[in-house]
Every structure is written in structure tokens, then in C-alpha cells.
Amino acid sequence: MEREIMKKLVEWKDSPDRKPLLLTGVRQCGKTYVLKDFGNRYFEDTAYFSFEGNRGLASVFEYDLDPERILGELGDIVQGREIVPGKTLLVFDEIQACPNAVTSLKYFCENKRELHIVCAGSLLGVSVRRDGISFPVGKVERLQMYPMTFAEFLCADGGQKLYDGAGRLPLCREMPELYSVPLMKSLTYYYIVGGMPEVVKKWVDTHSFEEVSRLQDNILADYESDFAKHAPKTDIPKLGWIWDSIPKQLAKDNNKFIFSHVKEGKRSSELEDALEWLTDAGLVHRLEMVSNPELPLSFYADSTFFKVYMADVGLLRRKSGLSHKTILEESELYRNFKGALTENYVLNELLSQGRHPYFWRSGNTAELDFLFEHEDRVIPVEAKANISTRAKSYAQFCKKYEPPLGFKFSMKNVGEHRVENTHTYSIPLYMIWRLGRYLGV
Fold first, then answer.
1. Global model pTM greater than 0.70
2. DSSP 89-118
């Protein structure tokens, strides 16, 4: 299964200013697989070391942090063959389990720049915050990995020709049924399956909804096991309460995250650390509100007013207890939650493209689903689950702030029109992967 992040790894490999690379992302999103695949494709050899539960490996970094000594011991004693700069890809997996290895990256950067070294850490953010790891600021490059996008899912599931053909169509041409019908069907499957690579592979191999759900249950159980294994004991029940409340809070009409709805009698001050743990682990994403959409958006974001979404739309579907039949049959009883599922999907697609979205609210009168920065502009985005694109909040935002460009994502076909003075593109939800082309990148 091809991953888009491979292109960024190759760019890093060929960069003359390359530093050690740190690849982060939620557990089981495919970091280990893609790094081993990267090594197999582009290097003569891959030296792979995982620190999780490996006390002997961690001891190599206890004497000192001299790169030459470390490479010698890793090559001669642990791996049994020499690690050769320029020919070997050195991979440190689950690096957060060895704080000294994290610190050593500073010295690899300063004294061994010719070596290609990549590190992966699922819970590095958690460990840095909890254990006070000395992080080598300015000495590493960082790359965030996410579950498989819809485009990656589509190609993995036999839709490469659909992807290529749709990608060649002019941006403003309506999508012919030859493309739109199978793409809508694939997006429906993606809402059920999601983008966790193991689950996607099982779907590709079996097309069994039952097998998909079984694997999703296993992943959700593994995440909850991580709570007990890696979180402070006092936070373990809080993590469970927040984790269980996310689908319920998203299902509300006003899906602002409210701490008092997590557990009766609990206040935000008691639960904030637990939510931060889930965020640092990559399990959830916070979408903060901006009421004054000026640049930079981060300066005007309200960190106390936010929504919380899950890292994978398929896991959200399974966590909520939503049957695959409900999605396939488009039940009317599923209408409200379909909006939440669609928002979660759009957020994940935007994040995977390297965008940092927010949402806009004007008192109690209007709310716009997403805003993001592009160059010197604020780009408004309205997301709808169905064909209807009537969006009063989008129109109100455009009238008030007059952005030159905006987008409506829905199941409506491709189109363009003006909303107030804003040039607005309608893009089908299954074509969000072409967003960059509309932005000229």
C-alpha cells in the first residue's frame, strides 16, 4: 500500500542540509512499515532498532553519547554488520522509551551529518511532557504521519485508475458519473473502514465488514491498554471517561467539547491533563475557535473553546457503535451523526495535507466549520454531509470579511460561483485531495 509520506522521506534523504528525522504519529498508523519500506527501496541496508521493552539496546546509550562508539556497538554487537553512512538507513523505533537516544540525536546532527538516521515515536509527545526528556531543539527535522487518507485508501482498494483519471480532469469540470459514482461508493466504505493500515489491508484482502470491525476493536483495546501502561495512575480513569465521551459530544448539535459532560461532578481543571495526554499521543485532535479571523490565526485562537475529534474516522465509527449497515443504507436516524463523521473526515484530510485548521463562531448566530491559513490569506471552508450546500454561516462570514477564496465540501459535484464577493469552489468530499491544486500549490 503506497503512502504519500514516502515522497517527503525521499526529499529528506536527498537534502544537503539533512538532519536526523523524527517521525511521529498515532500508534498503528504505519510508521514502522513505511520506514522499513523506505530503507528497502532507497538504501543498500537498513539497521532497525526498537527500544520498546529492550533494556539491552537502551544500555548502549548509557555510557556516553559519542556517535562513533554508539554506531560501533550497534553495528558490531547488536546487528552483526557495519552501519555505513550513505549506504545504511539507521532506524530508531519507539525512541521515547530511551531518553538518552533522543538526546543523542544532537550529537548525530553535529558530528555524523552524513548518516541517514530516522526515528519514530508514537508516544514521544507524552514522554517529553511527562518525563522531561532533553529534546534536541534545532538538531532534528520533524515529520507527522497520519492514518491513510481517502486517496491512499482508494488506491489500495483497486482504485488507482479512478484516482489517476479524476486527477487529470480540469479543476472546474463537473465530475462525470464514470468517476463520481464509484468515488462516492469508495468514500462510504472509507467512513466504515477508516485509514488504519492493518484495517485497510484486511478490507482489501477480504471486503468483510465483520473482519474490519474485529480489527478496529483490537486497535481500540490496544489504545486503552496504553492508558494503563503509559499514563499516570491518577489519570487512567479520566482518560477512559474522555475517550468514551468524544463520540457523544460530537453527536450534539453544538459539538463544543464540554468537560462537565465527560463525567458528572468533574471540572475542567481535573480533566485537562488527561485530554492533553490523548492529544500528545495523537489519538485526538483539538479544533480551536477563532472569533476574529486575522493572521496569524493561532494568535486569535481561543484555547478554552474547542471541539475534539478522533484521529481516524473508521475508529470513530466503531467507537460510536455505528453499524456499517446504517452508513450503507443512509438511514434517516443517522443524519445528525453523519454530519459529525463528515467533519471528522474533513479535519483529518486537512491535517494530512499539512494544514492547521480552526473553526469560526460569531456569538450564537453563525458557525463556520473550518478556517485555515494559506500564504497571506484566511481560507473559509464549509463542510456538508449531503448534496445540499446552503450555508448561511459561510455566506455571513464572506459578507463580513470578504475573503477572496473559499470552499464548500459536500456530495455536490464540482462547481464554482460567488458568495458575496468570495470566489467559491464546490468540491466533492471524495476529491478533497485535489485542494492544493485549487490553491495553486
1. yes
2. EEEEESGGG-HHHHHHHHHHHHH-TTSEEE
